[in-house]
Amino acid sequence: MNTRLFQNHIVRKEIPLDPMWDFHTLDSEEKKQEEFKMLVPGCWESNPRLVSYKGKAVYSKKVTFGANARLVFKGVSHTAHVYLDKKQVGYHYNAYTEFSVLLQDIPYGEHLVEVKVDNSFHEESALHVSNDYYSYGGITRPVVMEEIGEMFIKNVRFIPYRENEKWCASISASVSNLSNEQKNITLKIKIGDEEVSFADKVLPPNAETLLENTFEFPFAAAYTLQNPKLYMMDASLLYNDKVVDDIIDRVGFRDIKADGKDILFNGEKVIIKGVNRHEDYAEFGCAIPIEAMYRDIELIKSLGANCVRTSHYPNDERFLDLCDENGILVWEESHARGLNEEQMRHKNFEKQSLDCIKEMIENHINHPSIFIWGILNECVSNTEFGRSCYARQFELIKSLDSSRPVSFASLEAHIGSDLCLDLVDIVSFNIYPRWYHDTPVKDSLSTLKNFVNNTGGAGKPLLISEIGAGAIYGFRSNNQEKWTEEYQQHALTEQVTSILSDEDLSGVIIWQYADCRVDSGWFHGRPKSQNNKGLVDIYRREKLAYSKVKDIFHSYQK
Known about the structure:
The chain is an alpha+beta fold. The protein has helices spanning 290-303, 317-326, 341-344, 349-364, 384-400, 441-452, 485-500, 544-555; strands spanning 13-15, 20-26, 32-39, 56-73, 79-84, 87-93, 99-118, 143-148, 151-163, 166-177, 183-191, 194-203, 207-216, 231-239, 242-251, 256-259, 262-265, 268-269, 272-276, 307-309, 329-333, 370-374, 406-407, 409-411, 427-430, 462-466, 507-510, 516-517, 530-531.
């Protein structure tokens, strides 16, 4: 199964898993109920009998293999227990991050793999709560089983930087030795036509070893938004001069900095013209096939946008691959939205949040398109307890990757009270003049700037991370009524032109690209139980505002 847009391994072999799994819903006592065949990856909501199912289910499949294997899940929504031959071998929480299960010394033969999945808002879940987007259920992203030997490369992380006008990179690799003996190995990494290596390294028994160094790449070409030059990064693990494992990724040479009030990409100022995007598509829920991702990318490019914010969670890595290829900047965000202080005091909030950040960065750090790591959209950044949560998460991000700026989208209601603007590299606010209130957009921007300039956010880039208005596709009227396509077009025209003409701002990320389904508790403020602020609807049909924003984005070439 393709988990990326390119081949990840040549030496390491995959154990075939066909896409149809046996599937049962489970009752409150975890007894099997209805039986289906279910497609993996996929949302169980795609089945007409499960369109709004919140609860538990179990996927099962018989697989023939033996010795050592790695079972890699790109996303299970949202709580997963993994079993091999009825014995639990793995657990993971959070729909939006990759996890793997290591299976060692398995006798060769047919084995039963089961995955128990829960998408309910259960008491152990701090992050998946009833929200302004839908928590789908199932094995929603690709899953792959890999055959591994006594040693394997867990990951290779690549962070480019410039020094004396030359491209360099900090490269670190985690290599596992599953045997009871010390092993002497060499790790070779080929990037384009250049090769670097970690020669004659010792791997202690039954341990994971981190190899780190910096290297010069004097002939590397820069990755730019106009020419997004990508290099294959091919890592080979050699033991006794034989390649025993490999891993292939893609990288680009570029740097991002917040410099005064500007965002610099390779030293050049960039103005953000972006859209927020949920992983939600009418026919597929959040399990979006690559063909639909491609269509989204082409519609976003046609709009003239140069940025996507992955509201409000890490995205499928194939979508990030498409952004890499197309030079579309990505604000990638760990999972959390609109949590109040009581929710952030949940016993599992800190661990689940930090785990999500670690997994997001570990698995996505090599994507050159990612230019911001974000956290905690519209949470309590205006209380001392909230500030302590933001500070802890930013500290973790900077320890894992100090090469990218950090930000969070603050709530409009926190203008005047936000306590966390000194913690970020880029200040970001979600504001909704002409929608939730009828303030002229320039007045809202003036109020925002006056506040930021008297906080620890003064002198930093300022982004409008959300702004927009709702419209129900096909609802047309000459009366400038809210929810009409005409009113959305009118509001967005004022919003976007006001922001892009303001020299104090670094750009705008429109809420949102496409309509999305919301959880049932949000129906009263969300006609059709959807967040209808998309420029296109859930089927990707363009609303009037799409063409207007397209004209504005294309006319503003700064």
